[in-house]
Amino acid sequence: MKTTRTVLFAAVATGSLMVAQAALAGAHTWDIHEVFSAAGGSIQFIELREMGGGAGETFLAGLQVKSRSTGNFFTFPANLAPPSNNRHILLGTAAYAALPGAPAPDHIIPAGFFNPNGDTVSYHTYDSWTFGAVPTNCVNSMNRLTGVAANSPTNYTFQTGVVDAC
After folding, report:
1. Measured between alpha carbons, how far is 92 from 98 in angstroms, rounded to an integer?
2. Which of 38, 59, 72, 166 is the most buried (most CB within 10 A)?
3. SS3 state of residue 36
């Protein structure tokens, strides 16, 4: 009887740990972190950043990034490879990807994805950022934490840089 209780307790404890670990994984700790646009909107990037330190925030397949102003959206085609903690996801236009020295975007988005005069960009139901006019001077971006600053695109593999879109 004691052995049966011990086995049952161990099975319940193991199952509880597995459920707790699964609850920690997901895709909910990503935030829109930085937006950049050249004047015409052909060169743009959007950077998301994992803000919770979660290594398992990889289940993005089917989730979307949307622009309220333009109606454009991007659907993540697949989940990410772990770990995801404190990483960035870089969405960029083809013209952005062609810039010399630009960190490679993780995904390509259409030109004019968001309105550089101001927009609300959302990531699934988890995050939304409403911002005013984005600098279009070829070097500054709008950073959610610091405001207007030199652009600093960073992709999922931590490649980073500063681009000049002129």
Report:
1. 10
2. 38
3. strand
Q: In Å, what is the CA distance from 116 to each residue of 17, 131, 134, 143?
A: 46, 9, 5, 13
**pLDDT tens figures, 17-47:** 333 344 456 999 999 999 999 999 999 999 9
Terminal-to-terminal C-alpha distance of the chain: 77
- Find residue 88's DSSP bridge partners: 49
Distances (CA, A) of 128 to 37, 87, 118, 158: 18, 18, 13, 23
In this structure, the strands spanning 107-108 and 88-92 are parallel
Per-residue pLDDT averaged across 59-67, rounded? 97
DSSP alpha helix (H) spans, the chain: 2-24, 94-97
Pull the structure tokens for residue 6.
């011990």
Task: State whether residue 97 is helix, strand or coil.
Answer: helix
Q: Tokens for 25, please give them.
A: 């994984």
Strand positions, DSSP E, 56-136: 64-67, 73-75, 88-92, 107-108, 119-123, 127-131
Q: Cα-Cα-Cα-Cα dihedral of 21, 25, 28, 34, to 10°?
A: 130
Tally of helices (H runs) and strands (E runs) in the chain: 2, 10
Per the document, the length of the chain is 166
